[in-house]
Design a protein that fits this description.
The chain starts with a helix and ends with a helix. It contains eleven helices and eight strands. The relative contact order is 0.14. Helix 2 (37-50) packs across helix 9, helix 4 (108-118) crosses helix 5 (120-126) and helix 8 packs parallel to helix 10. Helix content is 44%, strand content 13%. It is an alpha/beta fold and 282 residues long. The mean pLDDT is 92. A six-stranded mixed beta sheet has the order 3-4-5-6-7-8, with helices on both faces. The protein has one domain: Type-2 restriction enzyme NgoMIV (Rossmann fold, 3-Layer(aba) Sandwich), CATH 3.40.50.10010. The protein has helices at 3-17, 37-50, 62-81, 108-118, 120-126, 145-148, 188-204, 221-228, 242-251, 255-266, 276-280, and strands spanning 21-22, 28-29, 92-96, 136-140, 175-183, 211-216, 236-239, 270-272. The longest helix has 20 residues, at 62-81.
């Protein structure tokens, strides 16, 4: 299936299941900031471009909107990434609400959690915030030796390559391939939360670090920048409609927001949701 069709369906689902109009004069989309004129105008322009049709809908709490954004993004990534099996083959798992301790690089944290639960002294020293639950995880199943030896005999027994977790003979834990945080709207506290989770994933791992990315719908580049600028924690931030965001800001002739947006894009800190499946194949 064409990636353009998957992206269009992604936007259709967002418009149908998440977008609600908040009361105001005029009403504004529920991913815009009612106190910020630029935010409201950019959000409306994006919705016009992706074909949103305003109809009367029941109010949607922010937490519900966030949960739906996670699930719709998970489905989009699953459908898109599976189109790239010839580039990145494997048996893949796509989940929401899955703690990192379920995966190979972090399974030691489950044992650590058991120890701290039993000892208040140990808990007071180590804390209890190391087992995080990313919004979306993508994980790869270890492969059996028949798959490894598919074309020709490469390995047998356990005398060699007896520790690598990619072999099913060595481990039955999936390997965490990507941790994806979803932010329907951005505020300073939420951006810091995403950074804290990213640093946790980097510091607590035993093995390769997963892809660590954030998907946002925030219309203001100034707020996206609070999360996207800088390196060392988050790989990259992905916007649910980046070309539409660029056009919206151009149409509104907001030079300050446009200059910052270009800085984020040219600095390789912000990409479109259509880029993410390909980046996951790296």
């Amino acid at each position: 299936m064409l990636l353009a069709n998957l992206r269009k369906e992604y936007h259709r689902r967002i418009c149908r299941d998440i977008i609600r109009l908040q009361p105001g004069n005029p009403p504004y989309p529920n991913f815009a900031d009612k106190t910020n004129k630029a935010s409201r105008e950019i959000a409306w322009n994006i919705l016009t471009q992706i074909g949103y049709q305003a109809i009367e809908k029941q109010h949607l709490p922010g937490q519900t909107a966030g949960g739906r954004f996670e699930e719709i993004t998970r489905e989009y990534l699953k459908n898109a990434f599976e189109q790239l099996q010839h580039i990145r083959p494997g048996k893949w798992l796509y989940k929401t609400g899955s703690p990192i301790s379920e995966y190979d690089q972090y399974e030691h944290l489950a044992r650590l959690q058991e120890l701290t639960d039993k000892s208040s002294d140990l808990s007071s020293v180590l804390g209890s915030e190391y087992i995080i639950t990313p919004d979306i995880v993508i994980a790869r199943a270890p492969i059996n030796d028949d798959e490894i030896n598919f074309s020709e005999a490469i390995i047998e027994g356990v005398s060699l390559a007896g520790l690598t977790p990619i072999r099913a003979t060595n481990s039955d834990h999936y390997l965490l391939h990507a941790s994806i945080s979803c932010k329907w709207m951005l505020r300073s506290d939420r951006s810091q939360n995403a950074r804290s989770e990213a640093l946790n994933l980097i510091r607590q791992r035993k093995g390769n670090a997963p892809h660590i990315v954030v998907v946002v719908a925030e219309p203001l580049p100034t707020r996206i920048a609070s999360l996207a600028l800088g390196t060392g924690d988050i790989d990259c931030v992905y916007h649910f409609a980046l070309p539409e965001l660029q056009k919206a800001i151009t149409d509104l002739q907001n030079e300050d927001q446009f200059d910052l947006l270009q800085t984020l894009i040219e600095g390789r800190r912000l990409r479109d949701i259509s880029d993410l499946p390909f980046d996951l194949a790296i």
